[in-house]
Each structure stands twice: as structure tokens, then as C-alpha cells.
Q: What sequence folds into this?
């Protein structure tokens, strides 16, 4: 049997995607990885409560307690390395990571973004803003993307995408919920399993 990949989930807010990952581990959709740590850059993120309820270790690193971005990222890297983390999942983590950070976890960081990349993505496109932009452009189909994280915001290799219809009368909030239900919460656990399995198999070979 393969040794499970140790996963950290990085969050900033409500953590519904984290919940989808926790549920997927329980139900066996994620079987090659285990969520070992949930790290938030906000001390009051509800995602931390979700992690505690599931018995998962938590950590908080807030930017305001650090001298600068370098210290902020260094503290996160230390925390991930001390916990032996092999895969980092950004699930509503609202910070852009530097090249230095990414180089510590090359091809080991994945992100879920609430649009069909390359539409409505990159710096400034996060959370509800993405859905506001899709509605104001007038596209009829949107969706979500899970991708590897590289030095270009939302520019790394795409792992999975799922389209979601836009309906008359949609508000950003209604659309956000549909994209989560029909795309993000389904796709992120599948992508987490896919990448965890790959990492676990690579470990086996080495
Ligand atoms: C999700 O829709 C996620 O795709 C988005 O923020 C939301 C977090 O919700 N992420 C981004 O916009 C990143 N660019 P959650 O905290 O309930 O998972």
C-alpha cells in the first residue's frame, strides 16, 4: 500500500472547499492523501473551526504580525516543512505567493479558481469579484478551474475544469454558489486525489 501524501490546505475565509476536501477524505474519494494541516492567514476564518471539528491541526500566520511579505512566507514555509507537507492546496487562500515560495513546492501547490481560466483570472480576480466580472461581461457559461500554481497568478498548468451555466437573474452570490456546488466542491477533491496519488507513487519509486 502507498504511503499517503501529507496535505496542507491554505485558507482565508469560510472554507466550503476545505469542507468538501474533509468530506471527500472521509468518504474515500481522497484515498492517497491525508489532510494533516489547515493554515489560515486570518485568525477568525471559519475554515479553522471546520478543521478543528474534523480533528485536523491548524495554524495561523497573519501578515500584520510579520515585518514584510518575506517573513510572512518564511513562517508559512517553516510551518509546512515542520509538518512534513508534500502537497499544498490553496482553497480560498487570498494571497498571491512569490516565486521563492513556489520554488519550495515546485508542482506541489494546487489552487481552485472560480472561472474558466484564462477568463476572469489573474491579479485582482478573487472571490465574488470573479463572478461580478463574468456577469458584467455577459458570458453565458462560466465554471471553475483547478491548476498547479506557478509564478504567474492563475497561470499554472490546468489540471481540471468544469463549465457551469449562467442563468437569467443571476447575482454574483447566486452564481458563486452554483459554481461551488456544480464545479469546485466536486472537482477539487478529485484533483487532490489525482495529485496525491502521483506524489505517493513517485515516493514509492524513489
Ligand atoms: C472559492 O470560490 C474559491 O474558488 C475562491 O474563493 C472562494 C473561497 O470559498 N478563490 C479565489 O477566488 C482564488 N483566486 P471557500 O472559503 O468557501 O472555499
A:
Amino acid at each position: 500500500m502507498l504511503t499517503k501524501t501529507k496535505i496542507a490546505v491554505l485558507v482565508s475565509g469560510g472554507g466550503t472547499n476545505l469542507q468538501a476536501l474533509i468530506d471527500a477524505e472521509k468518504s474515500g474519494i481522497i484515498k492517497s492523501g491525508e489532510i494533516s494541516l489547515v493554515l489560515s492567514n486570518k485568525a477568525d476564518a471559519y475554515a479553522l473551526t471546520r478543521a478543528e471539528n474534523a480533528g485536523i491541526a491548524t495554524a495561523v500566520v497573519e501578515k500584520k504580525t510579520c515585518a514584510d511579505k518575506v517573513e510572512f512566507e518564511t513562517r508559512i514555509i517553516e510551518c509546512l516543512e515542520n509538518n512534513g507537507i508534500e502537497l499544498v492546496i490553496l482553497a480560498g487562500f487570498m494571497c498571491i505567493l512569490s516565486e521563492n515560495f513556489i520554488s519550495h513546492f515546485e508542482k506541489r501547490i494546487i489552487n481552485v479558481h472560480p472561472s474558466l481560466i484564462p477568463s476572469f483570472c489573474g491579479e485582482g480576480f478573487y472571490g465574488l469579484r470573479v463572478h461580478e466580472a463574468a456577469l458584467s461581461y455577459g458570458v453565458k457559461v462560466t465554471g471553475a478551474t483547478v491548476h498547479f500554481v506557478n509564478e504567474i497568478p492563475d497561470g499554472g498548468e490546468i489540471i481540471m475544469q468544469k463549465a457551469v451555466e449562467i442563468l437569467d437573474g443571476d447575482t454574483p452570490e447566486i452564481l458563486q454558489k452554483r459554481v461551488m456546488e456544480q464545479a469546485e466542491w466536486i472537482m477539487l477533491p478529485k484533483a487532490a486525489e489525482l495529485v496525491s496519488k502521483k506524489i505517493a507513487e513517485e515516493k514509492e519509486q524513489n
User: Anything to note?
Assistant: Residues 5-205 form a domain with the Rossmann fold fold (CATH 3.40.50.170). The mean pLDDT is 97. The longest helix spans residues 172-205.
